[in-house]
User: Which sequence fits this backbone?
């Protein structure tokens, strides 16, 4: 009986000892697992915050670069517009000054030429040119389209420009002059008497509107032309300005 009691007491004592040792260890292990999990969650959260912050920073930097690029492009566009505006103003001013310094032209009172100009060329010689029926038809229509409403003198100036160009540049036909020199007038115009008479006077009779070679002309009311204004100005008549080649 006494032996049995001693054995039971020994078992109980061993159980108590094991309980004292195991329970704290289990609690410590559980606590360690919880702490490790907490650290893991905190680490993951910090990593996410870092990535979000970096993405936001990168987006801001990209946005700032794009804004800067847009601003520079807008500034460049504004600068280009300002340069174009100033250039147009310079051209307009030059053309106005040129128009205020036009050589005087008056209707001739008995001379060989239709208009007396301030800068006649003493060496200028006008020639007659024989026309084929096709060339005559094209020429009359072309003169009509360019100056049909500007009277006989206006038509003669245009006809002289075509005739002088044929002679100076060696063109063999009116059609070649028309296509090569960029004449824009329609050939569907029926020529009036002024156009017909002008062709006869300039080409058949070898007459001239002015004592000076004429190669180019344009209408300032319809367009501006730095090229024409860079050439030797001869005369202005009605809506056209006429030039010789420098």
Assistant:
């Amino acid at each position: 009986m006494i032996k049995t009691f001693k054995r039971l007491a020994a078992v109980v004592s061993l159980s108590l000892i094991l309980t004292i040792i195991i329970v704290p260890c289990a609690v410590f292990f559980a606590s360690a697992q919880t702490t490790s999990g907490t650290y893991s969650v905190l680490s993951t959260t910090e990593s996410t915050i870092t990535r979000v912050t970096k993405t936001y920073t990168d987006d801001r930097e990209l946005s700032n670069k794009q804004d800067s690029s847009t601003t520079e492009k807008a500034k460049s566009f504004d600068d280009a517009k300002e340069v174009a505006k100033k250039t147009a103003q310079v051209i307009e001013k030059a053309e106005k000054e040129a128009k205020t310094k036009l050589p005087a032209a008056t209707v001739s009172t008995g001379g060989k030429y239709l208009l007396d100009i301030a800068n006649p060329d003493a060496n200028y010689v006008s020639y007659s040119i024989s026309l084929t029926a096709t060339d005559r038809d094209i020429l009359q229509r072309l003169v009509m389209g360019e100056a049909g409403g500007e009277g006989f003198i206006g038509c003669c100036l245009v006809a002289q420009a075509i005739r002088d160009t044929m002679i100076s540049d060696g063109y063999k036909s009116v059609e070649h002059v028309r296509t090569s020199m960029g004449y824009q007038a329609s050939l569907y115009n029926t020529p009036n008497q002024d156009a017909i008479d002008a062709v006869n006077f300039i080409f058949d009779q070898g007459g001239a509107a002015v004592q000076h070679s004429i190669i180019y002309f344009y209408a300032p009311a319809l367009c501006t032309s730095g090229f024409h204004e860079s050439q030797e100005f001869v005369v202005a008549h009605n809506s056209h300005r006429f030039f010789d080649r420098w």
About this structure: Residues 65 and 137 are 67 Å apart (CA to CA).
